[in-house]
Design brief:
405 residues, 2 domains, 14 helices, ABC transporter permease, transmembrane transporter activity, Macrolide_Exporter_MacB
Length: 405
Amino acid sequence: MLFRNVRMALRGIWMYRGRSLLAILGVAVAALLVISMMTVLYNFSQSLLQQFSGLGARQITVVPGKLLNKKAIDSGISDFASFAPSASTLTYKDAMDVKARVPGVEKAAPQNEFMGVLMYNKKGYEMIFTGTTPDLLPILDVRLADGRFFTDAECKQNKHVIVLGANIKHNIFGDRPAVGKTVTINRENFMVIGVLDEKKMFGFNIDDRVYAPYHVVEKIGNVDNASLLFFTAKKTENVPQVEKQINNVIGQNHKKKDFNLVKAEEVIHVIKTVMDLVGVITLAITGIALLVGGIGIMNVMLLTVKERTREIGIRKAVGAKSWHILAQFLFEAVFLSVTGALLGLAATYGILYSIHTYFPILPNHIPLEMVGYTIVFAIGAGLLFGMIPALRAVRIPPIEALRYE
């Protein structure tokens, strides 16, 4: 009996295939909007969290001004307006004083930078010329694809040696080796001694940078202050104490609080808070599309019930039970809903693949739980919006149904 109901439901859908196709497309568009937006948001959030989690719980970053002050972090996002970025007054001396005077600090890497042009074979390439120390690589968990990074001795001697980011190397040399080549930056010659492995990070572009010893960049670019200071604590459990000591040392140098300390876990907290809020707003907006798709199914099924009134009367006259009629029309509604959801799911895969092509930092996969939620939701929507038409079909008196023209 069940298979006969399913067969009759499919036959009914096929009889009104044009109308059914429109209902399916309505659900497909709604599912596409919801799944694609929620998946992109999920992948973006996970990518951010993985990047900052990968920096390690021992990392402490000093930023100029008050980009992430403690009040804003503790209260989530309600006090974002209290962020107060300002011109940097951080210095190389700040980083070195911290490394010398704070026993709990393992590594320290100041960073300065300016936009410049790298010349090779009479062609210019824009890049971010960045000065730092050898401690930067382990702090940011960056690896070398070729060659080596400059040493402390080369930093002290202000050697003109550079390490290229992945994009810079590809744009200038392509597949040819870069190590050993001589390039020109601001009319100064530099020897390429290394190439960094590709590293995608939101808000911090490593691949388009060229790294050199700190004081070399300071002199060539006339850069007075550091843009950021990176530190790594020796032990995770000592991070709060180390943070206070770093704050005290730099505070003594500056005489006023014109900087702030940021830990990876604090950034993660803010990211989660923002993403949760954006997720709720996105779901509320796209939920309207799902509602419209569900109403479309209900309207199609109501019209179908009216046009098949005589068929319903004949079935009841030959002994069909009310639950047979109910099951048939509910199955039709669920079939339309699930088919539309699956089409939307397939379209989402295509969209995510296209996004990943242009933005490789964003993953192109749909979480399995998202697929499961979609199927369950489609079944629920079919049952919900198909219930009214199905009940109307059940309540049609057999005699009146047989008289229907």
